[in-house]
Amino acid sequence: MKSILINNGIKTSPFPKKRVSISMPLCITRRVRWTPLTLGAAVLVSTFGANLTLQAQQQLDTNSSSSLSSSKETATLTPTIPLAELPDAPSALQNPQPGQVQPPPAAPPQQTSADPYGVSPNGTKQTKRVLGIVPNFSSVSADTKLPPQTAKEKLTLAVKNSFDYSSFLIAGVQAGISMNGDSYPEFHQGAAGYARYYWHTLADTADENFFVGGIGPIVFHQDNRFYTMGHGGFRKRTWYAVTRVLVTRTDNGNPTFNFSEVIGSGAAAGVGSLYYPSHYRTWTKVGQRWLTSDLIDCFNFFWKEYWPDVNKRVFHTN
Fold first, then answer.
1. 123 to each of 120, 131, 311, how far by Cα in Å?
2. Using an 8 Å Cβ cutoff, are 118 and 144 in contact?
3. What's the whole-model pTM score?
4. Eight-state DSSP code of residue 109
5. What confidence score (pLDDT) does residue 113 get?
6. Which one, 7, 210, 290, 311, has least CB within 10 Å?
7. What residue ranges do the domains of the chain occupy?
8. Nearest of 148, 104, 144 to residue 230 by alpha carbon
């Protein structure tokens, strides 16, 4: 029989406790059972992960090869354009390719000056007189921009054109031609008849200059000077010159209908009829004088446009 020791009143068993030794193998056994599962899962994940990684790498390599091939094909199909053929290259502008449309040449810049007789960019210029006799005070050289006129300057220009010494000479020639053609039989012939022709011609010239070149420009705020074009073809320049009867400039330099010319010449014809014989005061006679005055001004603008060229090429005057 097993004896039971009593130590200080507490019963103790003589057999050692084996609870720990029995439970420990159970724990170890449980860990050993889970270890193969864990290793198997790790191997499975590693295998599938490696396969996925390899497939992804192969896909990237394939895409890179395709992109490189596409780039090479694009570079092969796209023609190489030399730098000199680019539209903004300096050589392309200087040496245009066949079929390339060139922009029209820019008009010469206007030079701001107070001198209407200055030399234009094309080397020509207007002069105060034509052939040293005929007044040309209202003409301006090509591509010249002048400051606006004052009312006093407009009237001064009209006075100079009306009472210049050449005006008296020209009126004398016109009076002789009219008397020789017996334009107005009531004036008769001889010295007395020539005097009548003379002062009527001089009065007509003054009326035209004051209404067209003085009063009209002041009332309508228009420039009474003729601005030479000076460049372009013959048709272009001729059309420009003869249409100055209908088109002029305002004091600000803008194009406008030439009220000063059209209305002014009509007023001059109406006033002139007052000192002619009564049967010349009809609407038909006044209209004829009106139209004749405008046609004469068309011719005046024509020779004013080409006078600088004639002066340079024929008389070699710069």
1. 5, 19, 11
2. yes
3. 0.64
4. P
5. 64
6. 7
7. 20-63, 114-313
8. 144
